[in-house]
Amino acid sequence: MGRATIDHKALPVPTLTEDQLQKIFKKYDFNNDGLLSKEELKKAFDYLGSCIPGIRASHGIHHADANRDGYVNEEELNELVKYAKRVGFRVK
User: Could you tell me the CA-to-CA distances from 24 to 52, 67, 69 in Å, in that order?
Assistant: First the structure.
């Protein structure tokens, strides 16, 4: 018996404001240290519907982490949102 597949591109993607997207990312700062780790971002991208959340998390850190400490901090969050927009997360 075959495995069911989902065409993720056919699913509707909700449109979010930049503020909503920032709040979603901040919600996944589970330890409240003001830094988003790769694991935290992976869970955030999974929540947002990414079919490759681990890759999105790695690339998000690469694009947003200006000080190269391996985390996304408050000052770098805007760059993370820009990355999310570039890869297809719809922002109003």
Answer: 17, 22, 22
Instruction: Report pTM.
Output: 0.82
Alpha carbon 49 to chain centroid distance? Answer: 9
Note whether 79 and 69 are within 8 A (CB): no
Provide the token pair at 71. 């985390």
* Per-residue model confidence as pLDDT tens digits over 41-82: 999 999 999 999 999 999 999 999 999 999 999 999 999 999
Continuous H helices in the chain: 18-27, 38-47, 53-64, 77-86
Q: In this structure, what token pair is assigned to residue 77?
A: 């969050």
24-37, pLDDT tens digit by residue?
Answer: 999 999 999 999 99
